[in-house]
Amino acid sequence: MDNWDDMRVFLAVARMESLSAAAPLTKMDPATLGRRIARLECSLGAALFVKSPQGYALTDLGERLRDRAADAETQFALAVEESRGGAAALTGQIRIGAPDGVANFLLPQVCAALQRDNPDLEMQVLALPRVVNLSRREADMAITVSPPAAGQLIVQKITDYQLHLAMRADAPPAKTLDDLRGRPVVGYIPDMIFDKELDYLGALGAGGVQLASNSVAVQLQMIRAAGVGIVHDFALPFAPELRRVLTDQLALTRTFYLVRHRSARQSDRLTQVAAAISAGLVAEVARLERIARLTDAPVV
């Protein structure tokens, strides 16, 4: 690739998979981007993208070039960071990808505390109902509920967390799981469960859900309106109308992992932020779960 500008244009299209989506990143119009990509392919004598009405998909060569270009981009960013003092300052922009449960109920407090201690740090939370693609640099790091098995990634366990059945405190009491029959069950849209660890229906013994969403925050609101469902304990303090129920009959444990691209190991700044995010999540999960236990429904 002849210059950094070619690399910037190529990476933008590779990551966004369309000219129109990449245009704001490059400050170029789609037609200009198309000409730049065509010129780059001509100079290489090979196609980097398969073009279709759905967008620009990378060829095998394009994927190899994307990985090399992304590594070069990271090395450049690290050199800039080092020239500014490296690990001594937490500054600049950090984007964290996460499922919406973490994004809604945990990361706002953790990121706010980190930014308060580092006023020149810009924290961004990317909430997605899918796994964040770090290879495409969608984020600097990601929180997941399953450790990825492939890719050039650094994976570390953050903490376990608990989930229990919950329903409104003023709903008719339940002594067994059978007492919940006939009440609307809240959960994920079955064909939109993007991680097996989010499939709770087997544990509940329910054949389906009557109220469903791909968003944990929406599910919580559905249970507040009418229904019963499996809820993160750390989300319950945000819904004071709800109580954990039948905790001795159904309890789930899941795990959060922090995932970074392997190149992040070379960045003192990203390492410091990752450590702070992990410590903050451990403390926040413990704090909120403690509150949830204190407000359990009484045994009747």
CATH H-tier superfamily of the largest domain:
Periplasmic binding protein-like II
* Topology pattern, helix = H, strand = E: HHHEEHEHHEEEEHEHEEEH
Task: Please write the CATH class name of the largest domain.
Answer: Alpha Beta
Percent helix among the residues? 25-40%
Q: Just name the CATH architecture of the largest domain.
A: 3-Layer(aba) Sandwich
Under CATH, the topology of the largest domain can be stated as D-Maltodextrin-Binding Protein, domain 2
Number of distinct beta strands: 11
Instruction: Please tell me what the overall shape is.
Output: elongated
Low-confidence region ranges: none
| Radius of gyration using CA atoms only | 23 Å
Relative strand content: 15-25%
- If you average the pLDDT, what whole number results? 85
In a nutshell, what does this entry contain?
Residues 1-59 form the HTH lysR-type domain. With 300 residues, the chain is α/β, with parallel strands linked by helices.
Structural overview:
With 300 residues, this protein is an alpha/beta fold. It folds into three domains: 4-83, Arc Repressor Mutant, subunit A; 91-152 and 262-284, Periplasmic binding protein-like II (D-Maltodextrin-Binding Protein, domain 2, 3-Layer(aba) Sandwich); 159-254 and 290-294, D-Maltodextrin-Binding Protein, domain 2, CATH 3.40.190. 39% of the residues lie in helices and 22% in strands. The chain has nine helices and eleven strands. The strands form two sheets. Strands 3, 4, 5, 6, 7, 8, 9, 10 and 11 form a nine-stranded mixed sheet that branches. Strand 1 (49-52) and strand 2 form a beta hairpin. The longest helix has 27 residues, at 268-294. It is elongated. The model has no long low-confidence stretch (mean pLDDT 85).
